[in-house]
Write a structure and sequence with these properties.
alpha/beta, 7-stranded mixed sheet, 298 residues, 2 domains, Rossmann fold, 20% helix, Elongation Factor Tu (Ef-tu), domain 3, 6-stranded antiparallel barrel
């Protein structure tokens, strides 16, 4: 039986490219930021999409990594990853000038709605990259009138040098003054949450920080707000509860183990509520972004 045009639409958009390593930064907590020269992927990447990367020639299985930044003109993408096993351990050893095989960009990304320009982007751990990508893309569209706020949570040291934000965010707890410097520099406010006691960070879960901020918003601002999240499943579930509590739309990017990442094996399928009932959707190509209410109906 042949695949329907709709189910196979993604096949013409996933590109196989050899990427050259341009930069490789290393941070505490075995976290790393990799910049790859991969022009065709960079030109097509959207916030929420990812690449399926071969970490070393001797490792046949690829690893899915979310795109944190992409410059279609310069032809590069950036990936933030944490060493968790053999593949990412091998990836941490690659050097500038090395070549890596990539498949991408893969997946359906975030879809912000212009009628809700107040974008609250919540990222946890290795779920931070899509939130950075989304915020930077919105900031690059001044005509859109977007007002993104990025909240990041981590129990590891953040993979950037913390500093006090220069941007005031009404409704934030007094202790939450730390930010991601690169976002601050382009006028996008960000705040950090942790239970590890890092200076300048909110002491608690990032979703608790989000709730504090949402509770301080006047009704007219909430009517312009939409939530976006990526991170561990418990964090996504908590974000979906926030969306229900405040009556807000919410999109979540799911994290699942993937084998092929191109929709063939269906190993990453999850149950999603549709108008026709419960359906199994592939996180790799049907997602990874879904409406939170469809995945976490409450």
């Amino acid at each position: 039986m042949s695949a329907s045009p709709a189910s196979a639409a993604h096949r013409g958009t996933i590109l196989l490219e050899d990427a050259r390593v341009l930069e490789h930064q290393h941070f505490d907590g075995d976290q790393h930021v990799l910049r790859l020269e991969v022009p065709r992927c960079a030109a097509r990447a959207t916030p929420g999409s990812f690449v399926h990367l071969r970490c070393a020639p001797e490792l046949p299985m690829r690893r899915p990594l979310s795109i944190m930044r992409a410059d279609g003109t310069a032809g590069w993408i950036e990936l933030l990853y944490k060493v968790t096993g053999e593949g990412t351990r091998a990836l941490a050893r690659v050097a500038v000038g090395d070549s890596l095989s990539t498949l991408g960009p893969i997946g359906c990304g975030f879809s912000p709605h212009p009628q809700r320009p107040r974008v609250l982007a919540i990222g946890g751990g290795v779920g931070i990259p899509p939130m950075v990508f989304l915020a930077e893309r919105l900031a690059a569209d001044p005509a859109g009138g977007w007002k993104p706020l990025v909240l990041m949570g981590s129990e590891l040291p953040f993979p950037f040098r913390l500093r006090p934000s220069t941007i005031l965010v009404p409704g934030m707890p007094d202790e939450a003054i730390g930010c991601m410097p690169s976002l601050d520099e382009i006028g996008v406010p960000s705040r950090l949450a942790t239970r590890a006691g890092y200076a300048g960070c909110y002491d608690g879960f990032v979703t608790e920080l989000a709730r504090t901020w949402l509770a301080a918003r006047p009704r007219e601002q909430l009517a312009e707000t939409e939530l976006f999240a990526c991170g561990p499943t418990p964090m996504l579930e908590a974000t979906a509860r926030l969306a229900r509590e405040f009556g807000l739309p919410c999109q979540v990017s799911l994290e699942e183990y993937m084998a092929c990442a191109v929709g063939g094996c269906a190993g990453c399928a999850v149950a999603v509520t549709t108008a026709q009932g419960i359906a199994m959707k592939r996180v790799c190509v049907d997602g990874p972004v879904f409406e939170a209410s469809a995945v976490f109906p409450g």
